[in-house]
Amino acid sequence: MIFLITKFTAGAWVVVLAVPAFIWVFVKIHRYYLLAAQALGLSGVPGKPAAKPTIVIVPVVRVSRLVQHALSEALSVSDQVIAVTVATGDADQDSSRVREIQAQWDAWNPGPPLRVLHSEYASIAGPILAFIDQLREQRAEQIMVLIPVAVPDRLRYRFLHNHFELVLTRALRNRPDIVTALAPLRFHVSRAARARRIPNCSLRSSTCL
Fold this sequence. Notes:
Largest sheet: 5 strands, parallel
Structural class: alpha/beta
Number of strands: 5
Strand order of the largest sheet: 3-2-1-4-5
Number of helices: 7
Strand content: 15-25%
């Protein structure tokens, strides 16, 4: 004790304060792992898994190969697939986009219906979450949201895509009753292809596919 008191300012405070603090933290972490293991049933045999009918929701920005790929994956999971697109505000540009995608969807006729969700605000995730809550009240099936993801072959282009996916995934992160999955589509970008054809992209769209 005399040594600790006399050498406290010279570095003995590490032994007096830091070491007990680290021991306390390690004890708390160990206790948490024990409780987590008990809650997750890591020490026992769980019950039999049970299959449950699933409704798959596919968010759509525009008709594309990306949406075709996502719908194919969704139909592989369930025959109950609903595509949704969001119309934000009363802007003429967004209304024109919705009419265009609805006309393309009707001409394409992929099978699953397209639901147009309207929002007064510039929010994409909000209307989809409200639609999911409404569907949850009406149906007893498991709900899955399958988000199309564009994956260019060149790493430097990837930050230009999937902003919609980031927003929606963040909004669904705290919804344990919803299964969230990604449907990635890898595509190749070449200078020749970009020179021959420039996609007609909307600045409001999160992807040009």
